[in-house]
């Protein structure tokens, strides 16, 4: 959650820094645009992680009681999926935040005829 909030904070800072009425540089708005997909994907990962955590909580509670063999396997799978996601996907949010914070306008400074 902290990393997604950090990405949003970085985007808001860039947006505020683009306000020419207060001495800002309007080209800072490009930094916001460069981070929109990053924010969308990071938010999606955060929500999926939260949902998997909720599933794992229910599964762990169910595993404390009497369950059929099939249900035990199902609940065990729910817990395993949540652990896997938390260990392999969620750590990328820190990297995405670092990238968002490092975004500059160097790509936007390349002349159009370079493409």
TrEMBL record:
Keywords: Oxidoreductase. The keyword Transferase does not apply. Signal peptide: none annotated. The keyword Oxidoreductase applies. Its cofactor is FAD. Residues 2-111 form the Acetyl-CoA dehydrogenase-like C-terminal domain. This is Acetyl-CoA dehydrogenase-like C-terminal domain-containing protein. The lineage of its organism: Bacteria, Bacillati, Actinomycetota, Actinomycetes, Kineosporiales.
């Amino acid at each position: 959650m902290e990393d997604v909030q950090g990405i949003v904070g970085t985007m808001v800072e860039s947006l505020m820094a683009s306000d020419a009425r207060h001495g800002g540089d309007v080209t800072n708005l490009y930094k916001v645009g460069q981070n929109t997909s990053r924010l969308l994907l990071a938010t999606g990962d955060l929500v999926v992680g939260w949902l998997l955590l909720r599933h794992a909580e229910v599964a762990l509670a169910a595993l404390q009681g009497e369950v059929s063999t099939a249900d035990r396997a199902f609940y065990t799978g729910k817990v395993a999926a949540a652990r896997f996601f938390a260990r392999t996907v969620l750590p990328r949010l820190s990297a995405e935040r670092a990238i968002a914070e490092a975004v500059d306008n160097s790509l936007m400074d390349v002349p159009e005829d370079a493409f």
